[in-house]
Design brief:
It is a single chain. The protein has 14 helices and 3 strands. It has 385 residues and is mainly alpha-helical. Helix 7 (143-161) packs antiparallel against helix 8 (166-182).
Length: 385
């Protein structure tokens, strides 16, 4: 226990959830990468398992470093990160690696690793909003001094993410609204921001209809929504295969490595890994994963409640909501409650730098928790004296 207290600061329940999700991730990814391994590496599944394990290990290293830093420093870091994010998003739209008509990635030189710039922008914007809202609490109801400086970066970042990644932009926009609501921004201003966002989306739809080459992803979004709402089998191949995986999993599942739908389901190791988890571990496994994310959210809220600083509280609840909201969207897609979005399951899906940014976000939440624990211990010592 002394070892844990020395090296793992902050909420131990959050640490436990991280460890459990990481172990599940290794098991689920190893089971679901069979077809990918045969397609690109002659059936060598250990290659992808080692690569994914290294990503998790590096991410865990980031988490260890980040959670030991006083969370107040992230206030200034978020400013720099936000200023860097906007040019990077523009660069990605113009020159990023294009996959399925979506320019979402830049290639990091030397290590040759793809990097999704929206991950950095998402983290930076959430922390920046927490910073600005905490600083402007005395005039929080004022339109000019409080709302406008907060509204501009939200619209800018979400607008730059939108052309290539609608789901991420929509999720980030929703998260921003939640943080603004908790930060006591006037409700009528929040509703006006929703109106501006919807207006911008409608404008982009009109532009896409007139000039499809400018926004090639727009047609994909519309088709996904139409096929989901109409239930057409041809447009719902992914959802159908996911439902087969879930139905055949039953209550107790087929056991680790027993999936058959991994051979038919597109991206079973990322977008639809939750369906594979239910197929192999049953309804019990699926519910257990859901509960783990709910525990993470609950502990994030508890961290926010205990924080003595408004910045720490807003940052903890914003990052917790963002992670769990993404997880819920991924799981909803897998069980066909939501159109296909391409969102990975945080800390579980096989991925590259997205795992690192998830670990950074959790590390920052733990940083807030660790500082709160320090204050509580110091208070108890003072009372005892």
């Amino acid at each position: 226990m002394n070892f844990l207290d020395k090296y793992l600061k902050g909420d131990k329940v959050i640490w436990s959830v991280v460890f459990l999700l990481s172990i599940l991730s290794l098991l689920a990814v190893y089971s679901s990468i069979v077809t990918l391994a045969y397609k690109y590496h002659g059936g060598d599944t250990l290659y992808y398992l080692f690569k994914h394990g290294m990503m998790l290990l590096i991410g865990f290293g980031f988490m260890l470093l980040v959670h030991r830093l006083n969370f107040k420093y992230y206030s200034r870091i978020s400013q720099i990160a936000l200023y860097v994010s906007a040019p990077l998003l523009i660069l990605t739209l113009s020159f990023g690696a294009n996959i399925n008509d979506a320019s979402r990635w830049l290639v990091i030189p030397v290590i040759n690793q793809t990097f999704q710039t929206s991950d950095l922008a998402k983290l930076a914007l959430i922390i920046y909003l927490a910073r600005e809202l905490s600083k402007k609490q005395d005039q929080i109801k004022d339109f000019k001094t409080a709302f406008v400086p907060i509204m501009i970066p939200v619209l800018l970042i979400c607008g730059l993410i939108l052309p290539a990644n609608f789901s991420t932009a929509a999720m980030l926009f929703t998260t921003s609204l939640i943080i603004m609501f908790i930060g006591r921004i006037n409700l009528k201003y929040i509703f006006s921001l929703i109106g501006i966002g919807l207006g911008a989306l409608m404008l982009m739809l009109l532009i896409a209809k007139a000039k499809p080459e400018l926004l090639p992803r727009m047609d994909t979004w519309v088709k996904r929504i139409e096929s989901f709402s109409s239930g057409e089998r041809e447009g719902n191949y992914q959802a159908d295969q996911a439902k087969i995986a879930i139905a055949t999993g039953g209550i107790f599942g087929k056991g680790p490595g027993g999936s058959t739908q991994r051979n038919f389901l597109p991206h079973p190791y990322s977008d639809f890994i939750y369906a594979i988890i239910i197929e192999e571990y049953g309804l019990i496994g699926g519910v257990a994963v859901l509960i783990l994310y709910l525990i993470l959210f609950f502990r994030g809220i508890r961290t926010a409640q205990k924080s003595e600083k408004t910045f720490g509280a807003l940052m903890a609840i914003g990052l917790s909501f963002s992670l769990v909201f993404q997880a819920m969207i991924n799981m909803a897609v897998a069980v066909n409650l939501f159109p296909v979005t391409g969102q990975p399951l945080p800390l579980v899906s096989m991925g590259g730098t997205s795992i690192w940014f998830t670990c950074l976000a959790i590390g920052i939440i733990l940083s807030v928790s660790a500082k709160t624990e320090e204050h509580e211990k110091a208070r108890k010592v003072n009372v005892a004296v």
